[in-house]
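go over this record:
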Amino acid sequence: MSGDLRQALEESDLFARKSLGQHFLLDLNLTGKIARLAGIQAGETVLEIGPGPGGLTHALLASPAAKVIVVEKDPRFVAHLNSFFADQLDRLIVIEADALAIDEEALLASHGATGPARIISNLPYNVGTPLLVKWLKAGPWRGPMCLMFQTEVAERICARPGSPHYGRLAVLAAARCDARLALHVPRLAFVPPPKVESAIVILEDHGKPFADLAGLEHVTAHAFGQRRKMLRASLKGLGNCEAILSAAGIDPTARPETIEPEGFFALAKAWRASA
């Protein structure tokens, strides 16, 4: 099948577009491993963003998922997917759209998806972080996520306090999910190879969500915008930062990279209460 897929791409002169951040995974052993890591359960709906030629899509269709909904911005691959997987269109739904602009909940409902959708994607590098933040804010339509990022971003998502990678992305992820780096993917696994290494991150809701993601974004943007400064300096833009830090029980002389996610949740609550 991998050979068939490569042949179909060559025959149709389909190539990756740098402007869309496209790097394709055509190794079906690797995409099968990613699908297994994702833990797809029978009857689930899977949402894939940026399927491109369909290497990962092939593995998702081989899983017990009841429905696989893919969102592709590049019209060349929308046509290719509908043609290449023509015998699977009872389970595969191909949507031509910009993933940053879609209403996932409405999309899933319109195609009869029931229960939370599991998101499994080799995300285009140029939209991976904004898509993750969008999904962290999502309602009950979203289930667990298995996402590929460049390794640097993956490490930032999974980082803990004290790590050089720890920052606002780790705090935002911790507000909703337990995140773990599950698999490193070498750059030469892609066509064409990107300049950076990649990694798979698994994010599963921990059941103790911090609700005010917008407030948390605001507070962490200030805190980590000047990460080498003490919090009493970096949070000055919030207003009465000394009172906010006191209400949250945070040492004003602490630096942001030392504060647990729960400390930032308390800061966001205190900021919101003071507004």
The chain has two domains: 2-205, 213-274.
